[in-house]
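Sequence dictates fold. Next comes a concrete instance:
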Amino acid sequence: MSSILSITDLGPLQSFILQNPVLFSVLLIWTLIWKAIGLWKSARLSHKWWFISIFFLNTLGVLEIGYIYFVAKKYDVKVESDEANK
């Protein structure tokens, strides 16, 4: 009995990562960029449920891109200037 695990002993995700480290890295960066943009836009627009959904669901950027281009595009962020508050 060997104490060293082979690729066949690992689960499918671990095997994929070990066999395709560059592809996995590209997918990770792709997902993080879209997730950050989606979270930022949903927070700025006070879309609490979109923020929660984007934060917890990992869809490789599909949910985030859909939100950014189809939902967030319909809304404007209203920012009050400092002069209006005086």
The mean pLDDT is 85. Helices lie at 12-19, 21-44, 48-56, 62-71, 82-85.
